[in-house]
Amino acid sequence: MIRLKELMLRGTAFLGTEWAILGGAMSWVSERNLVAAISNAGGFGVIACGAMSPELLDTEIAETKALTDKPFGVNLITMHPQLDSLIDVCARHEVSHVVLAGGLPPGGAIERIKSTGAKLIAFAPALALAKKLMRSGADALVIEGMEAGGHIGPVATSVLAQEILPHVAADIPVFVAGGIGRGEAIAAYLEMGAVGVQLGTRFVCAHESIAHENFKKAFIRASARDAIPSVQIDPRLPVIPVRALKNREMENFAAKQREVAQALDGGAIEMAEAQLQIEHYWAGALRRAVIDGDVERGSVMAGQSVGMVKREEPVQAIIDELVEEAASALGARR
Ligand SMILES: Cc1cc2nc3c(=O)[nH]c(=O)nc-3n(C[C@H](O)[C@H](O)[C@H](O)COP(=O)(O)O)c2cc1C
């Protein structure tokens, strides 16, 4: 346990937690209950703002604070049309850590966040971008591989870790995400220079998660190979692939892409609007599955680590198990 604490020290100091384990923001799933439960269990919960309005985010932060006095963060999507107002909401609540997701931050966003006093965590999809984000003022980085659930990049976690950690880990805290299901993997990334990890899929079936029973059942039934990336129908459309469980919704997404591509061709919409429409589509499809429990017509976003989700259990049990596995893996190396 001592070795694990040592390896996580920069991460726990940065987050203000017992363990350097972030509960990755998951739209609709990472709301007050799960976020507070992760923070109360010694990890770091992150609210998924997703497509929320500033008013809704304001309520969510206030309600999360009512459930925990431990640190937690807020994840904002860079392409949200009201990004500045969302940052102002975080500032009013003195949110300690803001995670910026969904592409390179627009001009001014980083400065605006940092001027609130919050620490800024950004996603680095390649070494050059990691260095650029460091120069722009990011306080910590997440490197997330394509094994992850939700929107994904093209490169595997194991490769990103080798490409990025040796070059920047001494200068900035780096958290590794994507495909982590057990503590042995956490131990390995810490030994490679990461200060901590981020997990999403493993927390979906926590007791405290409000995800619909059907959503949780789909996770418990699924194996790694069921979590597949969405297919891009039209190469001109800026579609970021999404990893989700195979189902009927995948066909709906193809139809949606054709519809948006036609509107683009006809000049009815511009590229930025096309991208926004695709993102709104995902937000709606994910809601249908997570909240309404329609796991056929909704999107069941899940990472490849879904095969390691075996049961519904309290967040504390998930974190304890991960910590135990990581500590014993490190202990066995001596
Ligand atoms: C259902 C679901 C929804 C997600 N939504 C978001 C999101 O809104 N913003 C974000 O930055 N990441 C999102 N993610 C990614 C997670 O924050 C996390 O990085 C990822 O799940 C880590 O990989 P893992 O699932 O293999 O643990 C989502 C993941 C899942 C499974």
TrEMBL record:
CDD domains listed in its UniProt record? NPD_like
Going by the entry's taxonomy, the superkingdom of the source organism is recorded as: Bacteria
Entry's Pfam families? NMO
Molecular function terms, GO-annotated:
dioxygenase activity; nitronate monooxygenase activity
Please give the Gene3D superfamilies that the UniProt record associates with this protein: Aldolase class I
Keywords, ordered alphabetically: Dioxygenase, Flavoprotein, FMN, Oxidoreductase
Q: Does the keyword Cell division apply?
A: no
Q: Matching InterPro entries, A to Z?
A: Aldolase_TIM (IPR013785), NMO (IPR004136)
Query: Mind telling me what this protein is named?
Result: 2-nitropropane dioxygenase
Q: Which organism is it from?
A: Sphingomonas xanthus
